Fold these 4 entries.
Entry 1:
Amino acid sequence: MRGRSRAMAAAAGIIAVTLTAAACGGGGSSSSGNSGNTANEITVRGCTPQNPLVGGNTAEVCGGNMLDLITRKLVHYNVDTAAPELDLATAIDTKDNQHFDVKIQSGQKFSDGTPITAKSFVDAWNYTAYGPNGQQGSYFFEPIEGYAATQCTDDECKAKPKAETLSGLKVKSDTEFTITTSEKVSNLPVRLGYAAFSPQPEAFFSNPDSYKTKPISSGPYQASSINDTDYVFTKNPNYQGKWAGKTDKIDFRIYNDPSAAYTDVVANNLDVTDIIPPDQLVGDQWKSDLDGRNGTKPQGVIQAFGFSPIDSQLKNVNLRHAISMAVDRATIVKQIYNNTRTPADSFVSPVVQGYKAGACGQYCEYNPTEAKALYAKSPGYKGTLTFAYNQDGGHGPMATAVCNSIKNTLGIDCQPKSEPDFKTLRDQLNKRELKGIFRSGWQMDYPSIENFLAPIYAKGAASNDTAYDNPKFDAKLAQAAAAPTEEEANTLYQEAEQYLVQDMPAVPEWYDEAAYGWSNRVENVKTNAFGVIDYASITVKSS
Amino acid sequence: MVSYTIRRILQMIPVLLGATFILFAAVFALGDPSAGRCGQRPCPPGYIAKFRAEYHLDQPLLVQYGYYLGKLFRGDLGTSFYGNPVAHELAIRYPTTIKLTVIAILCEVIIGVAAGVLAGIRKGRFLDNLVLISTLLVISIPVFVIGNLAQLVFGVKLEWFPPTAGQGSLYELLLPGFVLGALSVAYISRLTRNSVVENLRTDYVRTARAKGLSNARVISVHTLRNSLIPVVTFIGTDIGSLMGGAIVTERIFNVNGIGNFIFRSINQKDGQSVVGAVLILVVVYLVMNLIVDLLYGVLDPRISND
C-alpha cells in the first residue's frame, strides 16, 4: 500500500513538471531579461501618459519624459547647469523685452520629412493657445499679445473666442518670426525651452488624433511603436541638432508601480529607473542594492506649506514666522527622507539662475526660542491647526513630522489632515475650502527665478493658492520683467522675494533631489535640472 | 435545465444594471477628475471645458448614467481618458489576465489536489501534518508579502524567473501565476483532503476494496471522483474572482492585465474605464457561477436544477 501511494505521488509530480514545461515552451520566443543583450538599445521605466504625446497638451511627468525625446525647441537647457542654449533658434533678439525677433536654422526637418519653418512654430503656438482646443499648455502663452482674445469667455466655452490666433505672433519668412508680448517679459527666451513651445508639422493640424499612435517628431528620437506595455522610440534620421541620441532605440516599459521597475533594475532586467521607492530610501537600502549604479541630483522642485487664505487666525505675520521657525527641517529631512531632500533657505530652487542662498534668512531656520518669542507676540492659534496633504503622494509621515515639530515648539494643536488624493486636495484649493495649512509642491516649468515667484504668488495667478496679494511684490515683478539684462532682472526678482519672506504666505520646507538607478549594462545616466533623465545621452557599455 | 438556464440569464440583467449604477455612482462620488490633471496648477478653463464636455462631466449623475447606458446598449463601453475605446483597452489586456488565471488555476489544481489526496490517504501522519501546517502558513500571509518575497527570492536573488512580467509571455507569468494561485492551493488541498478522508470511510469504498480492486483504482476512480465535487465548485468561483481580484499581484509583477488597468483608472478617476472593466468582471463572475451550478447537476445527479 505504501509503495503504491508513493508511485502516485511520483506520477502527480511528473504531470506537474510536464505541464509546467509545456507552459514555458509556449512563450519561449519572447525576450525577457536583458542579460547578455549587447545591442545598442536600452529599456527605461515609463508610465502611461495621460494624453497622446502632444507638446502643448502635456503637463505630467509620464508623457513629459517621452516628449523630451521627440520635440526640439528653440532653446535647450544645459543638462548640468540648466542654462538655456540656442537649439533650433540661431538668434532671439529684443531691444525692449517686449518685441522679440526669432531666427531659426534653415533646412531642418520633422520626422515625416516636412520642413521645420517659422510657420511650424506660430501655427503650433496658436493651436495650443486657442481656448476651444482645450490644450493643457495654453497658459504658457499668456504673456503673448492677444492671448485673452483667444480664450473662452464662459466656463462651458459656448461662445467662440474673438480671435483664433495670437496677434503677437507674426511670420516674417521661413526662418524668422516675431513675438510681441503684452507686458515686458525679460526672461521670455528662457521659457522657450519648454515642450509647449515646440513646433508642429502641418500633418498635426489636419489630424491631431493620429498622435495617439504615431506622433511626429522634431527631436532626436521618433516614436516607432506605441502600445499598452511599451512606448518605443528609435533615432530620428531627420534630426540634425547637437544633442543626438547615443543609443539606437529607447524602450519605455510601462510600469504602474515604481517598485516593480526598481526591482527590475536591481535584477538588471531594466536599464534605468527615475524613481526610487520611498521604502528603499530607508537606511540607504537602495545604495547597497544598486552599488555603483545610482545617483542623486538637485532638481527644480520646492516643497512648502501654504497658509489658508480663509483662515482668519493665520493672518498674523508673527504667527506665520513663528510656525516657520518651529519646523525642524534638518531633522525631518534626515529622518523622513534619508537626506534625499535639502532644507530650503529661500523660496526659489538652487538649480535656477537667480537663486540667492539664504534669501529666507532666519525665518527659514529652526529656532525654538525665537519661535516661542514671536508666538508670544502674536494672538496665537486657538483650536486645531490642520495640515492638509494628499495621501497618494506618500506625504503622510512628513505631515505628521511637521505637525509634531510645530506642536512641540509652540504648543499649537497641529493635526495632519489627509485628503485621499492629489485631485481632491487640488479641488479643495481651487474652491478655497481648506482651513489651516496645506501642502504645496512646485515643480518649475523653466529654469528661472521668476517661475518660482510669479505663478505662485502674483495677484490672481493661477497657482496662487494662498491668495497672496501684495502690490509692492507685484510691482517688483513687473519691474524685473522689464529689466534690460538678466542680472538686473534677477536682482529685482530677489528683491521681490524679500516681500515673501516678510509676509510669509507660505513656508518653504525643502528642495527635492532626483534619485535614480541604472543597470550594469549602461552608463552616463544623469538627470537635468527638471529631474528628468537625459535619456539621449545614455550609452551602452561596450564590453 | 434549459428553462433554468434561461431564467438565470434573465436574472443577470437587473444585476448588471444595478452593478453599473452603483459603480457609476461610486466613481462619480470620487469628485471632479479634471482637477489635478495639470500638475500643481489648476487646468486652463478651455481644457476643463473640453474635457468635461467630452465625457459629459458637466451633467448631473443621472444624466451621465443615461448617456452611459445609451452607449452600452449599442455595445459601446465608452472612451478612456486617453481617448481610446474602453473595449479596445480591455481587449488588449484580457489575454494577459486570462493567461495568468489559467496558470494560477493549473497550479491550484495540480498542487492542491495532489497535496490534498496525499494528505487524505495518510491522515494523521507526517505528510498530512506537513500539508496542514504549510497551508496554514500560506493562508495567514497576505498576498503582497508572498508576492514581494517570491519576486525577491526567485526573481532577483536566484534569477529563476524574470522579476516582472511586463511583456506578458507565459514564462514571465509563471511566478505571478503561482503567487496568485498560492492562496487557493491552500484551500483546495484542505477541501480535497477532508473530502478524501470522508469518502474513504464510505460503504462503496469498502465494497470496492472487498472486491479486491487495487489501491490506486480505489483512490483514483472511486474516491477521488466523488471527492472533487466541492473542489470543482471552488475552482469555478475562483476563476471569477481571479480574473478581477489580481490587482495586488498584477501590480507587484507589473502584469499588464485588467487588475492594473482598473487600478490606474481608479487613480485617474476615469469613470467609464472603471465601470467598463468591472462590468466585464461582473459578467464573468455571473457566468462562472451559472456554469458551476449547472456542473453540480452533471457531477452529482442527486442535485437537480429542474
Entry 2:
Amino acid sequence: MLRSHQISCQRGKNILWESLDLEVGPGELLFIKGANGQGKSSLLRILAGLATPNSGSVTWDHVLIQKITDTYHPNLLYLGHTIALQSEMSAIANLQFLLRIHGHNIPQQAIHNKLLEWGLSHKTIQLPTRLLSQGQKQRVALTQLSLSQSSLWILDEPFNGLDQIGTEHLYQTMLHHLQNKGFLILTSHLHQNFQHVLANDPALQEKIITL
Amino acid sequence: MEYKNPTNPPIAQPINWFAFASPSRFYQLSQKIILLCWILFLITATAGLILGLLFAPTDAVQGDSYRIIYIHVPAAWMSMILYLAMAFWASIGLIFNARLAYRFAISIAPTGALMTFIALWTGALWGKPTWGTWWVWDARLTSELILLFLYIGYLSLYYSIHDERKAAKASSLLAIVGAVNVPIIYFSVKWWNTLHQGATITVSKAPSIEQTMLIALLLMTAAFWLYAFAVIFTRVNQRSLIDESHTDWVQQILRGRGQA
Amino acid sequence: MTGQLSTIEVMQTVFLRDLHLAIKQKTDTLGAVFFFALVASLFPLAIGSELLLLKQIAPGIIWVSALLASMLSMNRLYTNDFNDGTLEQLTLSACPLEFIVLAKILAHWTTTGFVLLLLSPILAIQFDLSPLAISTLMLTLLIGTPVLSFLGSIGAALSLGLQSAGALISLMILPLLIPILILGTLAVDAASTNMPFSVYLYLLLALSVLASFFGPLASAFALRIAQE
C-alpha cells in the first residue's frame, strides 16, 4: 500500500501542486491526468523516491519510503520518461542488466521469449538498441513488466510510440498484473480512463487524479 | 471514479526547535543586530587601528612594516573560522532541510573568500619588506591559498546549478567534504614545508607580543567578526527577500519600502 | 523461474558492464592515458632537457600529470548513465546505491588509474629515475590513484548534467588531492635519496582506506541530490 501525505511540488518559484493525498493498493490502477508541464512526471518521481517533495511524505505500508529502500525498491518497477537502454548494447543484454540490478536472476531464454511475445523479431533483439525505432525501444522497455516480480509499477507515458497491437498487449499485461494483486500508477496523455482495461472485474478499481 | 482524500491522518513533520528557523522571524530579529554590529565595528576598528598603527611600539627587527599583522592575522583567522561556520550551516541545512541554514552557508562564502584574499595580499605585503620577495611558499600562506581554492570551488558549484534547492544541497555536501579534508590538507602542507625548506622563520611569525600590540590585535579581531556578522546577516536577508518574494511577509516589507 | 541476486552479484554485474562499455568506447578511455603521457612530455619541452634537473622534478611531474589525466576522465563516470536513464534504474536498484557506486568507481579505476600506473615506468625512464625510485613511484600510484577515483567520483556526482562539468570537477577536487600529491612525491623523493619512505606509504594507505569508505558514500548522496 503506497500513500502520499500532503505532498507538494515546486518548480523554481512556482508551486505546481500541493496538499496531495493519495493511496494505491493491490488491484488498483491510479491514473494521473493533466496537461503538459503540470508536474505529472514529478509526481511519479516523488512516489518512486527519486525526488523529494517540497513538503509532505510518501509511505509504503505506513513507513517513510526513504527509510525502507531495501524493501521498497524490490517491490517497485519504475519506467521513466527516458527509456533506460544503453545504445551500444543489444536489447537482450540491456534487459538482462536491468533485471539483474533489480535483483532478478532470469535465464536468457526466458527474456528472449518475452521479447518475441512483445512483437520484436529475433534479429532485432540482437542489434544495438540505437538502431531500433522509438516504438521498438518502448517495447523492449515494457518487456520488463512481463518479467518483473515487483508489486508496484510506476509508468510514465508507457503508451508512447506503441501501435495498436503493442497497446493491446500492454493492456493485457496491466490487467494480468492487477488481477495478481499488483498495483500500478501511470500517466498518459492519450487516454481518458482505463475502464476498458479493468474488464469489469469487481476486484479491480481505477482511481483518477487530475493535476 | 474520482479520488477522495483518505481519512488517515498525515505523518507529523519533524519539529523545528530553532526559533529563527523561519526566514521572516530572522529578518525581524536581525535588523537591530545588524545595525549594532556596524556601530560596534566602526568603534573597534577605529580603536584597533589607532592603537596598532600609532601607539604600539616599533619592532626591533621588522621596523614598522610588521604593523600589517593587524589586518593579516584577523583576516587569516576569520577565513578559517568562516569556512568551518559555512560547513556547519551546510550540515544543518542537509540534516534538517532548513532553507535558512542553506542561506547562511552561501552567504558566508563570499565573505570567507574575501578574508582569505585579504590574508594572502597582506601576507605578500608583509613579505616584501621583510624577506625581499612578494611570496614565500610557507605552510601558512600555502594553506591560505588552498583555502581560497576551496571557497572558489564551493561558489563555482553553487552558481553552476540553476535550481536553487539543488545548488544549495550540492554545494553543502562539497563544503562538508572540504571541511573534513582541511585538517588533512593543513598537516600535509606543513610536513611538505618542513621537509622541502630548512627555513625556521616564516612570514607569518609575529614578533613577540607586547601589551599594546595584543590589545590592538584583539580589537581588530573583534572588528573583523562584527564586520562579518553585519555583512553576512545582510546578505542572508537579501536572499530571503529574493527567494521568497512571492510570500506575504516579503510583500509586506516591500510595500513598506514602497517597492512592491 | 527467478532466483534472487546478492549484493555482490549485482556489484559484479555493474562492474563488468562498465568495464565492457569502457573497452568498447576506446576514445574516452585511452584519451586520458594519452593525455597523461602528453602532459608529462610538456615539462621537459618547457623547462629544458637537462636530465639532472628533470630527474629531481620527475616524481612531481608524473604525479601532477596523473592527477590532471584522472580528473579529465572523471566526467564519463556517471554522465552516460544519467543521459540514457540507466542512473535512475541504478538508484532504484535492490542493491544500495553506495555499493553500485563502489563497483562503478572500481571499474573506472581499472581503465584509468590502473593503466596510468602501468604506463608510469616508461615515463619514469624518460626522466632517468633509478629503479628504486620507479618502483616506489609505482607503489605510490597503486595506492594513490584509487583515491583520485574515489574523490573524483564525488566531483563527478556533484556536477552531473552541468555544462562545464569537466572544469568544475577539477576545480572542486584537485585541492582535496593535495595531500595525496604531497605524500606520493615525498615518498619517491625519499626513495631517490636512500631515505626511509615507508611512513609515507602507510599514510597514503590510510588516506586510501578513508577515501574508499567516504567516497562512495558521498557520491551516492550527491547522485541522489543531482537526480531530484
Entry 3:
Amino acid sequence: MLGYILRRVLYAVPILVGVNLITFALFFVLNTPDDMARMQLGTKRVTAEAIEKWKAERGYNKPMLWNGNASGLAKLEDTIFFQKSIRLFVLDFGAAEDGRNIGSEIRARVGPSLAIAVPVFLVGLLVNVSFALLMAFFRTTYVDFSGVVLCVAMMSISTLFYIIGGQFVVSKLWHLVPISGYDQGLNALKFLVLPVIIGVVSGIGSGSRWYRTLFLEEMNKDYVRTARAKGLAETAVMFRHVLKNALIPILTGCVAVIPLLFMGSLLTESFFGIPGLGGYTIDAIQAQDFAVLRSMVFIGSVLYIVGLLLTDLSYTLVDPRIRLQ
Amino acid sequence: MNMGFLFVPLWTDVLLWLLVATIAGYGWRCSRQPHLAAAWARVFRRRTAAMTSVVLTCFVLVSLTDSVHFRRQLESQQPAAEIAYAGRVTTLLDLALPHLYEHSEKSYSAPFATRLFSKELVELPGGKSAREYPRLRYGGAHLANEADRAGDIARRGGLALLAAAALWGIAGLALRPVARRYPGVHWGAAWLTFGAVLAVMMPLLGLSAEYHVLGTDKVGQDVFYQALKSIRTSLIIGTLTTLVLLPLGLGLGVMAGYFKGWVDDAIQYVYTTIHSIPAVLLIAAAVLMMQVYIDSHPQLFPTTAQRADLRLLFLCVILGFTSWTGLARLLRGEALKLSELEFIQAAHAFGVSHRRILLRHIVPNVAHIVIIAMVMDFSGLVLAEAVLSYVGVGVDPSTTSFGTMINSARLEMAREPTVWWSLASAFGFMFVLVLAANLFADAVRDGFDPRVRLA
C-alpha cells in the first residue's frame, strides 16, 4: 500500500512541473515584465525609469532562465524562473501587488472559505442524494417526471440569478439576514446562512439528476432483481441494497472534490463580501495582480492532484477487486 | 436615401457562417446515410426535440441576421465628393429593426413607460422650472394624452397578435406537405411551440416601435435591443468554442486510445496537466495576457468593433483549450475498447494503414459521443460566459452579451425603487435559450446513445 501511494505521489511531480512551465510561459514569456509594468502603471506616458523601478521592486529585472553575470549556482538561482516559479514548490509565494505576503494572506483566508464550502458540500450531498433517491423510488411515475423537469429547469438558471435573486428577496425585501459581510466566530453565522442555502440550491439541478441516473443504473442490476425475487420489500431493496452500492461511485466522486473546497467559491464569496480565497482570486483578477494569480493557479493544481490521488486510494479501499499493481 | 454599403467581415461572422455551411453539409450527408438519418429521426420523434428545435431555430435566425456586418454609406451634399462610410458598424438585424437602436433615451425608463425613471429639472411653459419626471423622447411619444396608454398598448398588441395568428395559420398550411413526408416527427408540438413564440415575440416587436417594451438601461439604450444582440454573442461562444475543442479532443483522444504505449502516456500527461489548472484561473490569466497584448499593440486594431470581435474569438479559443480534456478522456476510453474488437484486428491483418483505420473505422464509431458532447457543452458555455463577464475576463465591455447586461445592471438592484428590467430580461432570455439547449441535448443523447436504445 505504502509503495503504491509513493508511486502515485511521484507520478504527480511531472504534472506539477508541467503546470509550473505553463504558468511561467503564460505569465513571463508570452508577455514580458515590461508589458506587465506598462499595464500596471498605465499604458500612456510611462517613462523607462518608472518601468525599471517597478520591475526592480518586484524582482522582475532579472534574466529569464540564465544569469550570465552571476557566479556558481546563482547563474541559475538569480533568475525570474527560479525566483518566481521554482520557489512555488516550497510554498514561497512572494508578495502581492499591494506589498502583502501572499502566503500569510492565504492562510488567513482559508477559514472563511471553508466556512462556506464545507456546509455547502455536506448539505448539498445530503439534499441531492435524498432528492435523487426520491425520484428513483418513484421512477416512471409523474413524481419522477416532474422531478427531472424541475432538475433541468434548475440547471438552466444561471448561478448569478440564484445569488442576485436570493440576495434581493431574502436580504432586501424580507430583511432576514445582512446583504453581505463577515464576522469572527459564531457571529459569522448570520452572514453564512444565505450563501450556504444559495450554494446548495444552485447545485440541486445537476447533482440530483446525476445521482438519479446512478441509482437507476444500480437498480437494473441482477442482484437487485434477485433481491426482489426473494420477496424483499421495495423499501428494503432501495435502502439496504441500492443506496449502499450506489453510494460507492457517489462518494468516490466526492473525494476528488474535497481538496478543492479549500479554493473557496469565486462568485458567492465576492457577492457576499466574504474574505475567503475565492474573493481573493476575483480581486486579484480584477486588479490584474499576476503574483497572486500565479500562486492560486499553483495551489489549485496541487489540490486537484491531491484529489486525484485520494480518488485512486478510495477506489482501492472500497473495491477489493482493484489490485495495487 | 443612399443605399451604398461596405461589408465589414468580422472573424466570428465568417466562422459562424462557415459553421452553418458545415452543419448544412452534415445534414445533407445524414439524409444520404440511413443509419445517421435513423438516429436523427429517433431524436425528432421526441416531443421535446421538436419543440426546442423550433425555439433554437428562432435564436439561430436572430443571431445569423445579426452576423452580417457592414457600414452604411453616408449621404454627401457634393456629388463629386469621395464616398464616405459611417463609422458605426450595422448588421442586418439593425436594418430590420432600425427604431430599436435609434430610439435611445436619456437614462433608465421602465418597460412601457412614457416618462423617465428619475426626476429631472424641467422648464415649464411659464418660464419657471420644476423637478418632475420628464416625458420620454420616443417611448409613448405619439400619445397626446398619457391616460390613453393602456388602451393604445392593448390595441397595438391585439393587432400584433392578429398578425401572429395569421402567420401561425400560414405556417401550419405550409408545414402540411412536409409533415406528410416525415410522419414520425412531432409536427403538432413544433407548430404549437411556434405559435407560442409568435404570440410572445410579435407583440413585443410590434410595440417596440412606439414603446421600450423591456425598458431602457442607464445610458438610455433599449433593453429589448440589447437582449436580441446578446443572443449572437451567446451562440458564438457556444458554437465556435467547439471548433477548437473538437480537433483537440477528437484527435488526441482517439490517438491515445488507439496507439496506446508512449503516445497514450504523453497525451494523458498533457490533458491531466491542463485539467489540473483551475479553468477560471487559466481563462483569467490568458485573457489578462491578451489584454496586455492588445494594449501594447493598438495599431493592430483600428476599430472598437474589430478589437471586441477578436477578443470574443480569443475567448472561444481559450474556452475550447481548457475544455477539450473531458472529451479526450471519453474518446480515449472508447477508442481503447474499439481497438480490441475483431473488425479492427481484421483491418490490421489486411494491412490497412493506421491513418485509414482511424479515419474509416474508429472515428465513425465514436461520432455519436462527439455529437452528444457538443450539444451538451453548449448550454454550459452560455452560462459560463455570463460568469466570466462578471469576473471581468469575459467578452469586451463594448460587446453586448447577457454577461455584460447582468454585470452593468446588478448594482441597480440596490436602488429604491428597483431597476429590475435589465436583469430580468437578460436572465429570462438566457433561461429560455439554455433550457431549450438542455432539453434538445437530452433528446439528442437519447437518440444517439446505443445504451438508451437497448434499455
Entry 4:
Amino acid sequence: MAALLTAQSSDYSQLMAYDAAIPDEADCIARAQAGDTRAFETLYRLNIDRVYGLCLRMTGNVSEAEDCAQEAFIQAWNKIAKFRGDSAFGTWMHRIAVNSVLGRIRKSKREQDRIQLVADTAVSPASIGDSGNLRDLSDAIDKLPEGARHVFVLNAVYGYSHEESGNMLGIAIGTSKAQLHRARRLLAQQLQEQGFEA
Amino acid sequence: MNEQHDDRLTTAARQLATEISPERDLWPEIESAITSPVRERPRWTPMFAQAAAVVLLIGASSGLTYLAVKDEQAVTVPVYQPEYVFERAAFGMSHNLGSDYQDARADLASRLDEQLARLSPEEREDVEKTLVVIREAIADINSALQQDPNNAYLQELLQKTYREELNVMRRVGGLTRNVMLRNDI
C-alpha cells in the first residue's frame, strides 16, 4: 500500500511538473500585449501548426502558406494590444490568417505573375499531414476553385459555421452554403473517378 | 452525388490534419520583422521600397501587357549597359540565393539572347526595358539591404523582384516558342 501511495504521489508530482511546464496562454497574451516578444514567441509556438495548417489548406502551396503564416503573426503582433479575448486566441489568429491569405491572393492577382515560377518550384503539399486515402482528398481539395476551396476548408475541415466562415471570408452565408455545395459536388466527381473510399 | 458519398466526404474531411508543422522554423523572420527598430530605420527605406515596388510592377506589367497586344512596328533598338544584363544574384550581400534559383536563372539567361532575337525590335525593346527596370530595382534593394540587412520588408521585396525577373525571362521563352526564324528550317 505504501509503495502504491509512493508511486501515485510520484505520478502526481510528475503531472504537476508537466502542468507547470505548459505555458499559460492568457499570461503570454498579457505579456505580449506589454511588448514581451519572448511571450509572443511562446504564443507562436503554441499556435503555428494550426495557423500554418489553415494557410496550407487554403493556398495549397507550401511557400505561399509559409509567407501567409509569417504575415499573420506579424499582423497579430501589431494588433495584439487590441485583443480583448472575445474569442479564443486560436480563433482570432485564424481570422488574421484568413485575411492574410485573401490579401495575398488579391495581390497575386494584381501581379498575375506568381503562378508559373511558384507552381514549378513549390513542393506539393498533398503528402503533408495526411496519409492513405486522405491524401487523395487533400489533393482533390487543392484542385478546387479558390472560393469553393476556402469555404470547404473552413467549414468542412476546420468546423466553422457558415456564419463564421462567411464572416472570415467576407461573403454572405448563402454564398458560403452555395460554395460548400459546389465544393462537395466537385470533390465527389474527382474522388469517384479515383475510386476514393473514406 | 449521393447522400452516402456526401457523408463519407464529410467524415473524411473531419479526419484531415488541421495542425501541420511548417518544414522550417518561421519564427526568426517574424522576430526580425517585429523587433526591427522602426525609429532607427532611415526614413527613406520604406518609401524607397514602396517606390521600387511600384516602378517594378508598372514596368513589368506594362511591358508584358504591351507585348500581348502590340502591332508590329520597326523601332530602333537601344543598347543597354552590359552590367544590367546579368545582375549578380546576391541577397543583401550577406546571403546567396538557392542553387535551384541560380540554375533556373542561368538557364533562362543563357537562352535569353536567342529568344530576344526572335522578337520584333519593338517587342525586344519592351522586354529589355522591363528587365532594366527590374535589375535596377534589384541593385537598389541590395544597396538598401547593405544598410539595413535585417529589414524583412526589403528582403521580401528583393525575393519578389528576383522572382519577377525570372517570370519575365520565362515569358519571353513562351512568347517566342512559335516564332520561327529562317535558320530554323
